[in-house]
Amino acid sequence: MSSYAFFVQTYQKEHKKKYPDISVNFSEFSKKCSERWKTMSAKEKGKFEDMAKVDKARYERETKTYIPAKGETKKKFKDPNAPNRPPSAFFLFCSEYRPKIKGEHPGLSIGDVAKKLGEMWNNTAVDDKQPYEKKAAKLKESTKRILLRTELKGA
Q: What is the pLDDT of residues 62-101, one digit of tens each?
């Protein structure tokens, strides 16, 4: 901590001892601390500067001997050659209908197009969703096979 921070901490403790029942407005307290700090002599500030030097030495000692906690997980490395995740039935539906919606409503934002696609998907009958769900299942299965092959080659 800085010498000023030690001063504020000490001043706050003194204030609480004198006025234990009075709550303090932080901004007003900060202003008073700042004013008092500016009017203090170098001799008065010396006590707090010594406290800051001791604290800095403690901090430097602790950082030299600091050992990070074990078991921290590192970010998983994504293989750039790995296949992309297969699209869901909804995404397949969107890729088919997005150009139609953009053609009909060229002024719509990306978010509005997505909302419209979501509404269309929700209003689509279960039977009409089947082709998209079957295609999504096939793509998922083929992606699994590709992943298995690449894992076997790498092992």
A: 888 888 777 766 777 777 777 788 999 999 999 999 999 9
User: Model pTM?
Assistant: 0.48
Contact status, residue 98 vs residue 115, Cβ threshold 8 Å: no
The full set of domain ranges for the chain reads: 3-64, 89-154
Q: What is the DSSP letter of 68?
A: P
Separation between Cα atoms, residue 135 and residue 138, nearest integer Å: 5
Say what the pLDDT of residue 155 is.
53
Task: Identify the architecture of domain 3-64 in CATH.
Answer: Orthogonal Bundle (1.10)
Report the alpha-carbon distance of residue 85 to residue 140 in Å, rounded.
Answer: 8
The domain made up of 89-154 has a fold known as DNA Binding (I), subunit A (1.10.30)
**Alpha helix locations (H) across the chain?**
3-18, 26-39, 42-64, 89-104, 110-123, 126-154
Q: Residue 66 in contact with residue 85, Cβ under 8 Å?
A: no
